[in-house]
Amino acid sequence: MTLLSLQDLSITINGKPILHDVSFDIRAGEIVAVTGESGSGKSMTALGIMGLLPRGATATGQIDLDGVDILRTEEAALCKMRGNDVGMIFQEPMTALNPVQTIGDQVAETILVHRAAPKAEAMTRAAEMLERVGLPNDRFPLSRYPHELSGGQRQRVVIAMAIALRPKLLIADEPTTALDVTTQATILDLLRDLVDEFGMGLLMITHDLAVVANMADRIVVMQHGHLVEQGATDDLLRNMHHPYTKALFAASGHKVSLPTNSHSAPFLSVQNVTRDYRTPRKTLFGKPGTFRAVNNVSFELNKGDRLGLVGESGCGKSTLTRAILGLEPVQSGTITLNDAPVFSGKKPNADVRRKMQVVFQDPYGSFNPRHRVDRLISEPFHLLDTPPTGAARSDAITKALTDVGLTPADATKYIHEFSGGQRQRIAIARALITDPELIVFDEAVSALDVSVRAQVLDLMAKLCRERPLSYLFISHDLSVVRTITDRVLVMKSGEIVEQGATEDVFQNPKHPYTQTLLEAAPTLPDDQATR
Amino acid sequence: MIRYVFGRLLSLVISLIVASVVIFVVIEIAPGDPASFMLGLNAQPETVAALRAELGLDVSKVERYFTWVTGMLSGDFGTSYTYRSPISELIADRVVVSLPLAIYALILSTVIAFPAGIYAASRRGGVGDMSVMGATQLGVAIPNFWFAMIMVLIFAINLRWFSAGGFPGWDKGFFGGIKALTLPAISLALPQAAILARVMRSSLLDMLGEDFIRSARAKGLSQRQALWKHAVRNALIPVLTIIGLQFSFLLAGGIIIEQVFFLPGLGRLIFQAISARDLIVVESVVMLLVFVVIVVNFAVDIAYAAVDPRLRTKT
């Protein structure tokens, strides 16, 4: 039975077309995944179905939910429909809940706002729903506030809110993108079970093709507001017609070939490093406690090494990175680069610091919007005793820009004139300009779309072929680490639980945690990824 | 929660001690000693010596500081040189006018600002929003004494509903006192209400863009329900900060309004004491105002915790 039917749905916002003639159906009990890169109109489709389009948006066509045409329904009737017939969960569980209300009140509100039960019964039903999504009442009483829960637990509360009245359709907009892989796996399992149990239709929006391939009964691929291809998952994976679909899946499983590393001299040495943070005092005059973020970590990085560091959020990756960059002192152990300590006295060792550069995750937040590109990428010159000036400086800028695939003319532009992928190229140019011996890539491709990510990975492989580049690549994305590094460290709760050649670790993980991590990570069917 | 309150209380006490030391030192480092400063350049040495003895300046500074502080703690603020009466009485006479006036003005400003801010936020970009924002723009721009004079013209001189100034005292009845304070309170409240309404509106608009409002809408709440049930309480934090700042201002900053309406308030007392170089009064009144500001900040901190559960679990 068709539950939801979109017919030629088009959306414009303030006259600008966002969605063009999108048509697809969802049946009861079916999981349909809508996928595509940012700007493809995935989320706007979902908001259109909810009747929650932003101000200035106009929609034409037809959205038929169980016999009701949503585009021609009054707002008051839509309010009755939302939560009752269709529920929605969102990407960011950390902000999707009201911080000043208890989780019980927020789940019960779905029931109360539709007058489905009196207050006391609504609370009982909220407790049942929270239990159903894996938050048993004895450990997660209704009186908990959102800030007392982890990201995965909050996402469970959001799911409980959305399904409290057992809607016919559930829309999940990137429900696991902000979560760790092991948490992602449990949330996806939960969603699948709920679809089976309630006979709901699930419209899942995600950019992660591996998740799509594992979850969906049917796949809808979108690009620039157009639906380019749709079909049953197995059929579509086996037989892609549209070039964009093929390109998207190819980019998602993109592999690069790194040149072999002929060096073997240790270069960066991390020995028995421990990093403690102070935690708030338990009593007013008591001693502050400590939290051990990095516990007795040792590893070495040879000249020319491409070393990966994987682990889930809170495992100490970022703390370790800051310690390596000499930004913070460590409580015990030593970190040296070419036998010189990275941190001396009370500040970073400038001699060592100038040999390291870093590329961050967010290509939007890591540049000063008021400076031109030439000034932005020549910033590391501050670290040098005799920074190049005049022609030497502009030559260096030109070289750095051309090395990363941009043009010398880009030097006079401002950062807002570039796309996310270009900005990440600029970040790499900034890291390269002083010819550092070590570059730290901190989740450097995590915020990029798959096709852009593939280009940046290609760029990194090209740079490796052109110069002796050593880097530490920190990421939660296992498939990327697998292709862009030769050795990998697996970190959990502040400790390195496994390290070795990347391919060995991936094919034959020894530590149970590494095994869990690899099992939890959704993968594309092999033959599709290499097509 | 108890730890939070206790922590705030501790910081209140420390702030008071630091403030008292700073005020004492600043008065002390005024050129010459307080006695010769108060008497002016042409004073006879004998007169200065007599005043020094009267003010108790002939003991060590540390001893004087402790006498001053312990005196204040027991309600003895010393004796005014110009008024020749206990400072505690002078302050008490003024506080019964200034404190009710400040509270009255604050209530008015909140009562005007909350609905105006919420209304404007719920009608963002519409005619209602623009009218409210236009009115608050005027309210912020026009000085409060001008409001005061216009209101005296209309309500006191033309309509004769209120008297143009003065304060009959509370012993003549509660409503008489309230009536005398009404025009001053409105003049003080209008500019404050304009600021508060703007803060309320922008804070609410920030909240309406938050993800949890979208979650609430997805549950089936209407825009208005989402605003009242989820946005308002979250928007209160910045608003409470402004209310705390405004109260402190209203208590001592109403001097021009007190002047316009001939009210015997704290602002006038401190102004007269400064003109008469009565340093002992200045010192005590400033300390009292600092005390009020710190206590109000403490109350605001407690209100934060009441609004936001996240603060209750932090130190």
Automatic annotation (TrEMBL), chain A:
Protein name: Peptide/nickel transport system ATP-binding protein
Compartment(s) of residence: Cell inner membrane
Keyword Transport set for record: yes
GO function terms (MF aspect): ATP binding; ATP hydrolysis activity
Main location: membrane
Span of domain ABC transporter: 4-249, 268-518
Gene Ontology cellular component list: plasma membrane
Keyword ATP-binding: yes
Domain of life: Bacteria
Matching SUPFAM superfamilies: P-loop containing nucleoside triphosphate hydrolases
Keywords: ATP-binding, Nucleotide-binding, Transport
Membrane topology, record value: Peripheral membrane protein
One protein family per Pfam: ABC_tran
GO biological process: peptide transport; transmembrane transport
From TrEMBL, chain B:
Bilayer topology annotation: Multi-pass membrane protein
Keyword Transferase: no
Domain called ABC transmembrane type-1: residue spans: 95-300
GO cellular component, one term: plasma membrane
Localization per record: Cell membrane
Family the entry assigns: Belongs to the binding-protein-dependent transport system permease family.
Name of the protein this chain belongs to: Peptide/nickel transport system permease protein
Species: Yoonia ponticola
Lineage, broadest ranks: Bacteria, Pseudomonadati, Pseudomonadota, Alphaproteobacteria, Rhodobacterales
